[in-house]
TrEMBL record:
Name by which UniProt lists this protein: Phosphoribosylamine--glycine ligase
Record-linked NCBIfam families: purD
Gene for this chain: purD
Reaction catalysis annotation: 5-phospho-beta-D-ribosylamine + glycine + ATP = N(1)-(5-phospho-beta-D-ribosyl)glycinamide + ADP + phosphate + H(+)
Superkingdom of origin: Bacteria
Keyword entries, A-Z: ATP-binding, Ligase, Nucleotide-binding, Purine biosynthesis
Similarity-based family: Belongs to the GARS family.
Organism name: Mycolicibacterium iranicum
Involved pathway(s): Purine metabolism; IMP biosynthesis via de novo pathway; N(1)-(5-phospho-D-ribosyl)glycinamide from 5-phospho-alpha-D-ribose 1-diphosphate: step 2/2
Coiled coil: none
Length: 424
């Protein structure tokens, strides 16, 4: 099986590494890729947002399966173009990808499916903003304002704040840019990312993970696209994972089928474990980054066969997934000033180590690897438990040199120290 992966981040680098372990995968290509993925797959330039361009590439190289990493091509219908041309594709149609691309669509599906989520309201007229802010945040009731871009925003469209002015400023800037704003009630409790391979009503969950969205240690600073992750979650009983599948993911998959928007691909449920049980924070229509780097590091089952089964309607007949014992931790190395405009173009030393997954990197003609984006790379540590996986990840990241770069020091720490508990 020749697999073409579309994307250029550490998530796609992790997908390639896991696909390479599948004995049925004998060809690997990536488009557009990065400096790290070029070493393990044939790399092609492509406009990843163009269904026509991706389909032409898949046909030209004889891909048997295309795996689409990021959300933007999916929301734009790249998977539809591939399917229409008869190329098996892991990734939902444009219609089903609205579960991530439109928060109001996702809310509508959840309401119809009876799935618990935050109470919310769309504001698309600045004249209604102040009254809506009064309904949705402190004082008195809610712990914080939650202000989201209704559309895609690469993880940076969300502000959670106790400061009314900060909430108002974020909402006003979105409205000024012509983006409807979603105000939500605050969901208290630790968050879980549960990735499920889905085809129609068939749902196969992967290991639950947790990511770290704020830029600074102790969950301080602005939101980012993700600064680290770990899996599995020692504080999450299997019973709660089953509830996420049975009470959230399956009903949403069934509802999408019922309304003619059947989902095939990776349905990512971002869930808060509140005192009233699991409640949805968001859905994504693709593998999460950086959780994928940790989750796939523990997958023993052949990934290519799993994704091909979902793409060809055979997911229900797949054997149960096998996982490596232990834990995995991803730590993201970010460029100076990220999540603001990142400093780029600096030489990275140590980027070619095997535990390094590239994202914002490029290779210069002299062979050196330079930074080219905000989230530059991820390291993955695997160990018998979370403590040893953390040690391995932090030892790997300390061997990398990039001027001005930064990373969080507390990925998985609270869980390793037994400091995460569920509310009664
Ligand atoms: N881990 C957050 C995301 O992938 O959107």
């Amino acid at each position: 099986m020749h697999v073409l992966v579309v994307g250029s981040g550490a998530r796609e680098h992790a997908l390639l590494l896991a696909l390479r372990r599948d004995p049925e995968v004998d060809g690997l290509s990536i488009a557009p890729g990065n400096a790290g993925t070029a070493a393990i797959a044939d790399q092609y330039e492509v406009d990843a947002t163009s269904g026509e361009a991706v389909t032409a590439l898949a046909k030209r190289i004889g891909a048997d399966l295309v795996v689409i990493g990021p959300e933007v091509p999916l929301v734009l219908g790249v998977a539809d173009a591939l399917r229409a041309a008869g190329v098996p594709c892991f990734g939902p149609t444009k219609d089903a990808a609205r579960i991530e691309g439109s928060k109001s669509f996702a809310k509508d599906v959840m309401t119809a499916a009876g799935v618990r989520t935050a109470v919310s309201e769309i504001v698309d007229n600045p004249a209604n903003l102040d009254a809506a802010l009064d309904r949705f945040g402190p004082p008195g009731g809610q712990a914080a304002w939650v202000v989201k871009d209704d559309g895609l925003a690469a993880g940076k469209g969300v502000v959670v704040t106790t400061e009314r002015e900060a909430a108002r400023a974020h909402a006003a800037s979105l409205l000024d840019a012509g983006h409807p704003v979603l105000l939500e009630s605050f969901l208290d409790g630790p968050e879980v990312s549960l990735f499920c391979v889905v085809d129609g009503e068939t749902v196969v969950p992967l290991l639950p993970a947790q990511d770290f969205k704020r830029v600074g240690d102790g969950d301080t600073g602005p939101n980012t696209g993700g600064m680290g992750a770990y899996t599995p979650l020692p504080w999450l009983p299997d019973e709660v994972t089953r509830r996420i599948v049975d009470e959230i993911v399956k009903p949403v998959a069934v509802e999408l089928v019922r309304r003619g928007s059947s989902f095939s691909g990776l349905l990512y449920a971002g869930v808060a474990i509140t005192s009233n049980g699991p409640a949805v924070v968001e859905f994504n229509c693709r593998f999460g980054d950086p959780e994928t780097q940790a989750v796939l590091a523990l997958l023993d089952s052949p990934l290519g066969q799993l994704l091909r089964a979902a793409a060809t309607g055979e997911l229900a007949s797949q054997p149960p997934l096998q996982w490596r014992h232990g834990a995995a931790v991803t730590v993201v190395l970010a460029a100076e000033n990220y999540p603001g405009r990142p400093r780029v173009g600096d030489v990275i030393h140590g980027a070619d180590a095997p535990s390094v997954l590239h994202a914002g990197t490029a290779r210069r003609d002299d062979g050196s690897v330079v930074s080219s984006g905000g989230r530059v790379l991820s390291v993955v540590g695997v160990g018998d438990d979370l403590t040893s996986a953390r040690e391995s990840a932090y030892s790997a990241i300390s061997a990398i040199r990039l001027p001005g770069s930064h990373f969080r020091h507390d990925i998985g720490q609270a869980a390793a120290e037994g400091r995460i508990s569920l509310q009664p």
